[in-house]
């Protein structure tokens, strides 16, 4: 695999390439200038379900746009098929964009995609995006770290590949009340997560919030404590993408 800068990659222009781009987490203005520049010259764009149509509006109108969206554990394009498509188009000499929600290196199967490119000797470029945790904090106006009360920031997935609470998490660290813990994909396991965190010593009254569709017109916020939030989220019937943030910084 080749991870390099733009100039080095341009020198290699006879071969196609794969560019993993972060689309930010909803609001199209969260897209970076670099992302927009690359989207405008892409030949093929494989995009996720969480990428908005406004963001797709920046794509080169001549480019082929393919939805490869995966929604939780429902109907989806298999990861191996996405990898094969990316590689096939790049071997045809095309500039292939893999467009993902948030940042492309956070909970987004980037490792497998980079590995597939490496096996096929295809150069890869990565364009960072605003991950959901950052966008949520900025939108709601709270810091993710605090010099007295949140000295560690930890991102964790709420479920494993089967949709269950992941085994092998460092529960002691996650239950640290002096940390900010962000749970991506929390919906299926929030109640179990809350219970486990309290068993490991996280105080029941620790401030916690959930945000659905952050930065979008459909955004919904629920605040509470680690003890109360699971029930509140269930009652709210949140159908969109949800992020949970735990820790004193969420006392907004
Ligand atoms: C597969 S992960 C991708 C994360 C993404 N790469 C990022 O950096 O934000 C999908 C999860 O991200 C979170 N997410 C993405 N967009 C969101 C949004 N607009 N509002 C709330 N949560 C979001 C949810 O937890 C969702 O289940």
Provide keyphrases for this structure.
elongated; binds S-adenosylmethionine; five-stranded mixed sheet; single chain; 29% helix; alpha/beta; 252 residues
Strand content: 15-25%
SS field, number of helical segments: 9
Parts with pLDDT < 50 across at least 5 consecutive residues: none
Mean pLDDT: 93
Query: How far apart lie the N and C ends?
Result: 44 Å
Bound molecules: S-adenosylmethionine
Shape: elongated
Amount of helix: 25-40%
Spatial strand order of the main sheet: 1-6-2-5-3-4
Number of strands: 11
Taken in chain order, the helices and strands follow as: EHEHEHEHEHEHEHEHEEHE
Radius of gyration: 19 Å
Biggest beta-sheet profile: 6 strands, parallel
Describe the structure.
- It is a single chain.
- By secondary structure, this protein is α/β, with parallel strands linked by helices.
- Helix 4 crosses helix 5.
- The longest helix has 13 residues.
- It is elongated.
- It binds S-adenosylmethionine (SAM).
- S-adenosylmethionine binds next to strand 9 and strand 11.
Question: How does the SSE layout of this entry go?
Answer:
Layout: E1 2-3, H1 6-11, E2 17-22, H2 33-40, E3 44-47, H3 53-56, E4 64-67, H4 79-91, E5 95-100, H5 110-119, E6 123-127, H6 132-140, E7 152-157, H7 171-174, E8 179-184, H8 190-199, E9 207-212, E10 220-225, H9 229-236, E11 242-246
Parallel strand pairs: 1-6, 2-5, 2-6, 3-4, 3-5, 7-8
Antiparallel strand pairs: 8-11, 9-10, 9-11
This protein binds S-adenosylmethionine (SAM).
